[in-house]
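User: Hand in any protein.

Assistant:
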Amino acid sequence: MNFIDALQQIPMPILLISASDGVHSTCMTAAWFMPVSINPPLVAVAIASQRYTFELLMRSKEFAIMSVPRSLVKEAIEIFGTLSGRSINKFKLAKVEVIKARSISAPIIKDMPLVMECKLVQASSTGDHYIIVGRVIEAYSLGKGEPIIYFRREPYTIGNKVDY
């Protein structure tokens, strides 16, 4: 089994990462995410440096992380996860309503089950991706929805609780 196939055996969240430099805004799908500290509240996400979201995030030093509801899975995969925001407005193409974040300049998609507004703490090069560490300055919900995970190259809802 190669490394890419091995990674597909690990369930990962489907998240959207948004950023804005005050003039341009974009959003991308990400799955490589983890909490790294409770106090202070820090999270990390892996983003390739050639991504437009990475460029805007590094300019603004802030970003938002949003969990993807079932109603946006197709857009998360086919638009936010595939197309570049350098040449198109992904929000418009996905037909989502964008609202102002509470504390940062990054756009927020209305009705998201989870929003974390973050300030950049550290960006570390780790091969073909950067580990972006952000301090969570706001965390809230704008809607309801089950978390969606990506497993074996397909989106899934979370299944049944396992008793032990």
Residues 3-153 form a domain with the Pnp Oxidase; Chain A fold (CATH 2.30.110.10). The two ends are 30 Å apart (CA to CA). The CA atoms of residues 120 and 152 lie 31 Å apart. DSSP finds four helices and twelve strands in the chain.
